[in-house]
């Protein structure tokens, strides 16, 4: 829900009491920096709340530009916070990635500052259409930019690991922008080949078969699977399978990709791309660049 009137930090969850800027007399350098940043950013709305933290709309008084500030309690997961900061720093500047402006913290909370992306996420877009499929040309425009961005992230050694409808924003020109690197990991490689892990993360509807099979996981290939599921959802207005059916999908070694969506034919080229992105065997699965 949007809030039109500007609110103070104190009104937004009583942030002063939560010590975004410390009130201690013997403040550390980090705390003093946090206090300076609180004065710089004028909060105006709560943009979203999740298990990992809250996101606020704010005005940067130095630039007079709108920003989004993600506030995370340091006790939540210090390693995860540091990972998100590192990932955003590496990929910021990539076209199709939400620009990262930096962070500040004290002993209780960390604030990550991003450009404000005006628009809605892809789940909201489908919801606004009563889950009617989008035209293929529109899907290609949105997802081509997303695929370019994700491919560049992989080239820079960052895997998103939570690609889904809710983590892709679009503006009024249908430009797709990836947000939320809270589950990002770093792609280690030996002799140019990506090293595998066994980390389990992401959202169930987008989870690649190798998670279920408990096999070693290449994060870039799980991003490719999730990209395929997201693209499928836009084209068909539904997920390719229910989460409880993933075992059957693995057993049958294929994902059913219908020739039509809501009576509208899907091109053979797009069906081929989806099939390659959602190939059960990750060794044979295409990379995200196939959708560029």
From TrEMBL:
Protein name: Protein kinase domain-containing protein
Sequence positions that bind ATP: 70
UniProt domain Protein kinase: residue ranges: 41-292
Keywords: ATP-binding, Kinase, Nucleotide-binding, Phosphoprotein, Serine/threonine-protein kinase, Transferase
Assigned protein family: Belongs to the protein kinase superfamily.
Organism: Planoprotostelium fungivorum
Tree of life domain: Eukaryota
GO MF, any single term: protein serine/threonine kinase activity
